[in-house]
Amino acid sequence: MRAPELRGDVWLNTGGRPITLAELRGRVVLLDFWTSGCINCLHVLDELRPLEAEFADVLVTIGVHSPKFLHEGERASIEAAVRRYEVHHPVVNDPKMELWSQYAVRAWPTLVVVDPEGYVVHVAAGEGHEEALRRVIADLLKKHEAKGTLRRGGSPYVPVEEQPGELRFPSKAVATAEGRVLVADTGHHAIVEFASDGETVIRRFGSGARGSQDGPFDIATFTEPSGIALLPYDIAERVGYHAVVADTAGHRLRGLDLITGEVTTVAGTGAQWRSGPDSGKAAEVDLTSPWDVAWWGPAGGVVVAMAGNHTLSVFDPVGGTIRRFAGTTVEGLRDGDAGEAFFAQTSGLAVDGDKLWLVDAETSALRWIEPDGESFTVQTAIGVDLFSFGHTDGPADQALLQHPLGLAVLPGDKIAIADTYNGAVRRFDVFTRQVTTIATGLAEPQGLLLHDGELLVVESAGNRLSPLDSSSGPTVVTGDAHAVRRPPTVLAPGEIDFSVVFTAPPGEKLDDRFGPSTRLEISASPPSLLADGGGTGTDLNRKIRLAPGVAEGVLQVVAQAASCDSADSGAEHPACRITRQDWGVPVRIEDGGVRELSLVMAGEPRTDG
């Protein structure tokens, strides 16, 4: 189809000038439908960087920012996100999701390739499409160079001017035994050690360059580090480092020796986990966007909030191993046994004795885990599902948050929550189960630290670590409840033909050498929505049956497919890869609705123009 024209209320990285597809005729255009709070979208930004460099003279990438949360649609929020994640291509804001609808997008992230003549030729949902996109673009260049319809050179990208400062989009902070404060200076790819005043810089771990180099503090490099955990003294003595850093976009855990300043990689290969083993020798296991870390005795090591696949892992520094601890990789909110629970972008951890508190960003939830005999149980204090959020205080079962990213344990059995997208700090009373607001007007608070009796707030978009001003005392906010603004798919009651469409990328074929090459898992929220057809299987097509009496809900779908270079691809060393996509599909059940639901995991490029 002819690609719909680009329209939005704000253009970034263009000097404020709108861009039209018409003026990009002759170039290959890659549209990246994303939202700044989506971890899968952040993965795609990293996948696109090498493609943008390789095809710089013919490829124009345009980010279409279609917000999930209200805050993400605000201009200041988008501007901060573009700078925080070093987005070096034009971005258009699509606050009413009009472009999303015109391009028939169903999930974040989705990539759309528009050829030099203005036609949509390739669509791929999810992440892990770098090599497939490379082949699609290369094929388009060959075809349109032969036709004379290719135009090289020129770029609409206009970089923004950066303001220097001590911190750049910091995320988390911890206090050492000596009273110093370590802050993850995420935007500078470094860890900053402050004196006990939280203002005087002692030293920096990291040169400021983006990377994964180990070595002395002034040479080592990080990639968007976030959480920091201090090890118990006896453990630190045995392993030779004192702190563990979640090197988020580097998909690694790093060790800090606070005496010598040495930085070492202690877990992760640097490759992002997509499928296969996620337990074993720590140096040999792929990680996926570790966002926070905390030492927790009952788990026997450092708990890792693995935001990239909605799970928790445990890293054993002494044994040098890492293992899945909680979660199934399905994104959602489900309590119960830790191994069967659903999480959604686990982002913040705090320990209170035998309880591990955590915040799930995508379900706007506060949850906890505690030992239950020989296992562990997950429970939810605040939070409803993937689509409900707001700023409402009161009883915990009625309270709402908006994409929280951090928390801290306060005296008197209270939990402070960095309610990031509400720009607030909230407080949950464990005994009364009441929620109040203790500060507002903050610039995307992502981390909290109780230090010498004072609560410090890491204001990420404010580029600062600041003491909380709670002189006015807690207040009760009764804001509106909100829901993610995605139009639901209207389905007919009863039996539905469900399918996931996957076509192997150009030059590849499905890899069935060791059994079925595809996997499909379907569940629902509420669980009662599905009467039949849930569970895991190897066929991408199945019949599902919707239960009578349930008017709406969300189908949670996880699909993956294995493909390899085909024999005629010409590859000297054939590569194999896993394509995976998670969907949360809002549905409404009505007479007259459709009886077929098809999701596209990857598209096949058109050849007919």
How are the SSEs placed, and which strands pair?
Layout: E1 11-12, E2 28-34, H1 39-54, E3 59-65, H2 75-84, E4 91-93, H3 98-102, E5 110-114, E6 120-125, H4 130-147, E7 173-175, E8 181-185, E9 190-194, E10 201-205, E11 225-230, H5 233-239, E12 243-247, E13 252-256, E14 263-267, E15 280-281, E16 290-296, E17 301-306, E18 311-316, E19 321-326, E20 336-337, E21 346-352, E22 355-360, E23 365-372, E24 375-382, E25 388-392, E26 394-395, E27 406-410, E28 414-419, E29 424-429, E30 434-439, E31 445-451, E32 454-459, E33 464-467, E34 478-483, E35 489-491, E36 494-502, E37 508-510, E38 518-525, E39 530-532, E40 535-537, E41 541-546, E42 552-565, E43 576-589, E44 596-602
Parallel strand pairs: 2-3, 3-4, 35-43, 36-44
Antiparallel strand pairs: 1-4, 2-5, 5-6, 7-8, 8-9, 9-10, 11-12, 12-13, 13-14, 15-19, 16-17, 17-18, 18-19, 20-24, 21-22, 22-23, 23-24, 25-34, 26-30, 27-28, 28-29, 29-30, 31-32, 32-33, 36-41, 37-42, 38-40, 38-42, 39-41, 42-43
Short account of what is shown:
The protein has 609 residues and is mainly beta.
Tell me the helix content.
under 10%
What strand line-up does the widest sheet have?
1-4-3-2-5-6
Kindly report how far apart the N and C termini lie.
Answer: 9 Å
Strand content: 35-45%
Uncertain spans: 603-609
Output the structural class. Answer: mainly beta
Q: What spatial form do the alpha-carbon principal axes imply?
A: globular
Describe the structure.
It is a single chain. The protein is mostly beta strands. Helix content is 9%, strand content 41%. The strands form 10 sheets. The chain has a 6-stranded mixed beta sheet with strand order 1-4-3-2-5-6, with helices on one face. Strands 35, 37, 38, 40, 42 and 43 form a 6-stranded mixed beta sheet that branches. A hairpin with a 4-residue loop joins strand 29 (424-429) and strand 30 (434-439). The model is unreliable at 603-609 (pLDDT under 50).
